[in-house]
Write a structure and sequence with these properties.
Distance between the termini: 17 Å
Order of helices and strands: HHEEHEEH
Number of helices: 4
Mean pLDDT: 94
Helix content: 40-55%
Largest sheet: 2 strands, antiparallel
Low-confidence stretches: none
Length: 131
């Protein structure tokens, strides 16, 4: 076993602190890509929504951002049907059409997978920064 002096430990921790934000960003961005892939997979037929043209499924995008001391990633779609497909819709829309559409959840079922992936990526980020 190698002994480390207090100065060596301080230097190593300073290097890790400098490297950690980039490692976290990489892990968060990777988790975003994997999360979108899982959501798209869930939106490829029952129990999620059926695929008609693939436009909705392909509209899901990860948008990673650097923030002080870390990163964040937003997963989303700009398509208006996203909320209705995920949660369902009962009622009359703005055009007067009546709906009783059940939910076809595809985001909710992906959350546990995304969370597990993010935890694993953060463990890797810390290990990379300390190496």
């Amino acid at each position: 076993m190698t002994t480390v002096t207090a100065d060596e430990l301080a230097a190593r921790l300073e290097r890790a602190a400098d490297q950690l934000p980039h490692a976290i960003y990489k892990g968060v961005a990777h988790t975003g890509m994997v999360g979108v892939a899982r959501i798209r997979g869930n939106a490829s037929g029952r129990p999620g929504p059926n695929v008609i043209t693939g436009d909705y499924r392909g509209s899901w995008k990860p948008v990673p951002h650097r923030i002080p001391y870390g990163a964040m990633c937003t997963l989303g779609t700009d398509r208006p049907q996203g909320r209705r497909l995920e949660f369902g819709f009962v009622g009359t829309d703005s055009l007067g059409r009546s709906y009783n559409q059940p939910p076809f959840a595809h985001v909710g079922p992906a959350i546990d997978f995304i969370s597990g992936t993010l935890h694993a990526q953060m463990r890797l980020a810390v290990a990379e920064a300390l190496s």
